[in-house]
């Protein structure tokens, strides 16, 4: 660049100041550091003062190399300024001088721009001054990722076991990782907690940090929450972010085994389905749980045992055993199961009993049970007695019949048994109905039924008043016998039913009356006669014109003739002929209307 005409004057002034020993005073003031996020524009300010003024001031910018040497990146002279070629900042920097402030702008800064920058101020005299600023570039890391171990961890492990790893990438300056358990930070503790970290410097100059947590777990850690916290730096502040929370599977030996009846709830009875459950407060995967019935040696390798239709022998002691095969640990617990029972009801005397009429009836009913029972007696579905004993002071024929004894267990629904007893009362027969029975019929034969009670079952014989024996079919009933005879009616002859057994007999007389059929015939004749009279009356009225009784539809219209006679027109659907009748029944031609 060509110097202007004032250049010789400036050179002369410089020589003059040198000759007389007059030196200018120069001062530079800069910040110790400038902080900025990666990718932004950094501005480094150089504040300077000089008593020569700005006309002859030269401003130069440098950065310090790793070997402590300087690399100039920008030079501004009174008549010329430019960025140095072939440097890290050639195309990214610019200088803005405003009075005594020289601001160096660096665009799109990266972590490799974390350098010390030097501002040098020179005047026309040999005097110069410089200032230094450290540029600090920050880059926030990625969100931390955490991974828990997939396998379970035993509390019996002697050495600390790996819990998980935490990783954070591409941060600057280097992030720091801290592990937490239930919101409490974990620090390295000999033989208890070990935290190891490794750092990787990426090709971009950014830091990636990985941390691994190993520790000796306890049973309580099965519910613990683990996570890592990352601390990183930004301009003028420190920030923190947490990873996701993880849990681990902790294997621990049981200290207690429990066995219980899952169903049925409450008392157990024969016929129920019994379900036993067994559990422990450990969770070792290599454990074996066995439930065993000590009385019968029946066992299952499971935490559940189901026995259907249990009997009283299925009661007793059931033992649950837990065995951990890796550690040879065995622990057991037992429980007693009671199966309640109710045996079949037994009536004494058995099956049936016969007593004389007037004597006392006595029977007992019992059923062996593990619980308190209640006994009731029924006859014909009606309650007749409560308690184990059925007692009747004086038996009658009505006492006879089938009795049912029902034994229940009040405190357990569904426990019930029953048995029956046939009671027979010895005595002379009794025939149902009055001693003399009237029978009326229009037929020539009649069926007669005779039912008799008594024990032994009576024999029924049929005879007539004229000394004949009748053949009949006899069947036994619950309390006696029944016989039906077909009798051909003979005038003035009676029929007798004779029921007899070892203790006596009973006779019933049947008086058979035959109703005459002449009366019925007379009623029919009278009815026919009345119908004939009714028909004659209807015909007479028809002939007189009072009613119309011809078949088909008739149209009736009343008209008044010239003679003031009432005329009725009768017209049939089946003929076109129309007949006009006067009140006296005489025919009139249609033109007489």
From TrEMBL:
One of its GO terms (cellular component) is membrane. It is a single-pass membrane protein. It comes from the Eukaryota. Residues 4-136, 144-247, 254-338, 343-422, 429-513 form the Ig-like domain. PROSITE patterns: IG_LIKE. Residues 1-24 form the signal peptide. It is found in: Membrane. The keyword Membrane applies. SMART domains: IG (SM00409), IGc2 (SM00408). InterPro entries: CD80_C2-set, Ig-like_dom, Ig-like_dom_sf, Ig-like_fold, Ig_sub, Ig_sub2, Ig_V-set. Keywords: Disulfide bond, Membrane, Signal, Transmembrane, Transmembrane helix. This is Cell surface glycoprotein MUC18 isoform X8. It comes from Pundamilia nyererei. The gene is mcam.
């Amino acid at each position: 660049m060509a110097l202007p005409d004032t250049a010789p004057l400036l050179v002369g002034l410089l020589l003059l100041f040198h000759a007389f020993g007059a030196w200018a005073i120069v001062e530079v003031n800069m910040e110790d550091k400038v902080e900025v996020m990666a990718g932004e524009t950094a501005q480094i300010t150089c504040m300077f003062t000089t008593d020569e003024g700005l006309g002859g001031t030269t401003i130069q910018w440098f950065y310090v190399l790793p070997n402590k040497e300087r690399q100039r990146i920008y030079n501004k002279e009174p008549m010329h300024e430019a960025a140095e070629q072939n440097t890290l900042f050639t195309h990214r920097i610019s200088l803005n001088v405003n009075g005594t402030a020289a601001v160096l702008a660096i665009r799109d800064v990266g972590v490799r721009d974390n350098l010390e920058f030097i501002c040098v101020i020179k005047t026309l005299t040999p005097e110069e001054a410089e200032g230094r600023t450290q540029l600090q570039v920050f880059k926030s890391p990625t969100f931390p990722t955490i991974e828990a171990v997939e396998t379970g961890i035993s509390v019996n492990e002697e050495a600390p076991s790996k819990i998980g790893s935490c990783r954070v990438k591409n941060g600057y300056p280097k992030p720091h990782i801290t592990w937490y358990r239930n919101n409490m930070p974990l620090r390295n503790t000999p033989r208890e907690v070990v935290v190891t970290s490794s750092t990787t410097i990426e090709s971009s100059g950014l830091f990636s940090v990985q941390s691994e947590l190993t520790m000796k777990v306890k049973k309580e850690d099965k519910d613990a929450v683990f996570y890592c916290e990352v601390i990183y730096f930004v301009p003028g502040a420190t920030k923190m972010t947490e990873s996701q929370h993880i849990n681990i599977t902790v294997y621990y030996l049981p200290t207690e085994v429990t066995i219980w009846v899952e169903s049925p709830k409450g008392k157990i009875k024969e016929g129920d389905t019994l379900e036993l459950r067994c559990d422990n407060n450990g969770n070792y995967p290599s454990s074996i749980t066995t439930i065993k019935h000590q009385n019968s040696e029946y066992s299952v390798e499971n935490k559940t045992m189901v026995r259907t239709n249990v009997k009283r022998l299925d009661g007793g002691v059931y033992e649950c055993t837990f065995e951990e095969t890796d550690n040879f640990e065995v622990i057991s617990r037992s429980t007693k199961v009671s199966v309640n029972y109710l045996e079949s009801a037994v009536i004494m005397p058995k099956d049936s009993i016969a007593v004389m009429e007037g004597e006392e009836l006595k029977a007992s009913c019992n059923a062996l049970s593990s619980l308190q029972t209640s006994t009731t007696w029924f006859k014909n579905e009606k309650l007749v007695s409560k308690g184990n004993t059925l007692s009747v002071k004086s038996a009658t024929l009505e006492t006879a019949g089938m009795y049912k004894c029902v034994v229940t267990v009040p405190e357990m629904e569904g426990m019930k048994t029953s048995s029956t007893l046939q009671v027979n009362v010895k005595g002379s027969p009794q025939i149902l109905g009055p001693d003399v029975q009237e029978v009326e019929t229009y037929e020539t034969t009649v069926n007669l039924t005779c039912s008799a009670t008594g024990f032994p079952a009576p024999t029924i014989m049929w005879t007539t008043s004229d000394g004949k024996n009748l053949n009949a079919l006899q069947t036994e009933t619950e309390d006696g016998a029944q016989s039906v005879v077909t009798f051909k009616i003979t005038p003035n002859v009676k029929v007798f039913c004779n029921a007899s057994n070892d203790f006596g007999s009973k006779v019933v007389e049947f008086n058979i009356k035959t109703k005459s059929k002449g009366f019925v015939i007379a009623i029919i004749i009278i009815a026919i006669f009345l119908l004939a009279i009714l028909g004659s009356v209807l015909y007479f009225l028809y002939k007189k014109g009072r009613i119309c009784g011809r078949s088909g539809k008739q149209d009736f219209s009343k008209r008044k003739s010239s003679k003031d006679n009432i005329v009725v027109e009768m017209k049939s659907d089946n003929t076109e002929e129309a007949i006009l009748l006067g009140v006296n029944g005489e025919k009139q031609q249609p033109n007489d209307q």
